[in-house]
Each structure stands twice: as structure tokens, then as C-alpha cells.
Specification:
alpha+beta, Glucose Permease (Domain IIA), 23% strand
Amino acid sequence: MKKVSILWFSKAENTYKVFSLKKFQTYALITLHFFIYTALIFLICFSIYQNIGLRRTLHKINVLNSQLNQMNATLREKNLKIASLQKQISNKDKKIANIQDKLNITQTQLNQIKKMEVKIRKFLGLEDESIPSGKFSHQGGFEFKKSNNNTTNMDPSELSLFLNNDKSPNDLINYSKDLEESFSQLVDYLKKRQNKIRHMPSILPVEGKEFWISCGFGWRINPFTQQREFHAAIDIAGAWKTPIVAPADGVVIKVAKSKLLGNYIKIRHTRHITTLYGHLYKPLVKKGEKVKRWQVIGLMGNTGHSTGTHVHYKVEVDGKAVNPLNYIYDQRLKKLALR
């Protein structure tokens, strides 16, 4: 076959057309159609395969989206729990801080109480020169009951170390119980010596609130002579006519006036102890009169050698002047400032 003839009929009534193709053209045309149909079939199959793969991918995406939504829901739930726990922690931290503040206040109060207890023991002559064995020493005639936490038998300086060493509340409770027992022993002792204690100076000899210590016990420069001298008393300044009270029971042994002290009063409390009150505006007691603790005995003034309204308060033991602060256990004393 050298060539192929193709008849082409456009319409029935028209004449046909004849196309002649050579042999290689015929093969080329057949081959072209074969490749076109093969390519078409391949594209169809590939499209079907891609469509199946796409459906599988979409299914996987839907599954993953579902899992992601579940995880987001779980995450939100966890976040809510975390927020709730954080709030609880914050509330507990506030409670702990509040408890710690109260504990610090309690520690400070116990420190003050312990110092007062030691001071009272010294005042009553209950000191024990022997030092108990152990880490802490106790200043007093009675011994604390020993506890398992070794918090007993402390003096005030050691108590400060104890309070700053992050001790547990149980340690503080044990210490407070020991302190309570010690004070109970003191109370029993005081009841037995009640009469003697009534005659022992122990309070500030001033009534009211507006007063302060203007000059302490010890060496000073005399405001009049500008010479160094020993001031054998304390000066408590305040308002004009501030009431002056007896610091303990006693008998007035002198009511007089001098150039140095102005109007003054002297009271004997025991066979060994006397007190004196100088620069008074006016004495309100007479010689030989018995007075009680807190009884008003005079009014603060500015008589004698004085640079301002105050009372010159002096304590003598067997005729020798001692620091009056050692005979003042009034809580108001810690609020006073030396001006």
C-alpha cells in the first residue's frame, strides 16, 4: 500500500472530496490518534486516582480537625483548672502572709514579755547565779519546764536569735507555754509578797499622755553653770500642772521648798527606799500622810532652778541615788523619748 485515499462527504447532495495520504502520513495519523487516546485514558485514570487521594486527604484532615478540637477543649479545661489552682495558691499565700504577720507580732510581744519577766525577776531579787546546762541560760530563781524543742531558759538577747532563726509555730507555742508557766510562778510569788510589792516603786510618777523624759540619769552639763555634773535623777517634762502620782505605797516624810528643787516632796516606801519629786507647782500631801500607789501627790511646775515645766524624780536606796528607770515597769516607758 503506497497511499491511502479518504473520501469526505460534507452533504448528501454535494459531491464528495478525495484526500490522498501517503503511507507514512497514514501511519503518523494512526500513531497520533493512538497517543491522543492513550494520553486521554491516562489523564482520566490519573484524575480518578487523584480524586481518591484527595478524598482520603480530606478525610484525614477532618479527623485531625476533630482531634484538634478535642485537644483545644481539653486545653481550655486544663487552663481553667490552672487558673483555679493559681487563685487558690494566691489565696493561700495571702493567708500564709497574714499568719506570718501575726506570728511576727506574737514573736515581738513574747520578746517584750520575756524582757519584762527578766526585769521583774531582777527587781524581786529572784536571779539565779548558776547557769543551767544547755544552749540557753535562764535568768531567774525558777526554772522552766524543759521541752523537746530546746526553746526554754532563754534570756532576751538569745530570744532575738531564736525568733530570727525561722523556728516553727510549734517552737513558739512551746516557748509561750514555758513563759506562761514562768509568769504563773511569778504571780504566785508576788501574791505571797503582795504587801512588800505595794511599797516598791514600779510606775511612772506622772499621769496623762503628753510627757517625756527631758534629762536622764548620769553625767550631764548643768544648764545654769555649764559645768559637768552628775544628775542623780531623771527629769520628766510635761504640761503645766500635770498630776504627779505616787509610784508605790508609802509615807510622806518631807514637804518643803528650796532654791534648787523649788517645791518638793519626799516619800519613804520601805526601810531602804525613798523617792523625791522636785520643781512642783504645788504639793497636794502633807508630812506624815500615808499615800497609795497612783494617788496624786502634787502638780508639775517650774519652781526652783528649772528651765521648763517638769518633775525631778529621784530614787534612793539606803541613801544612795539609783537610776529611777530600774524602778519603772510601766508599759508607757517604752514610748517615751529622751529629748
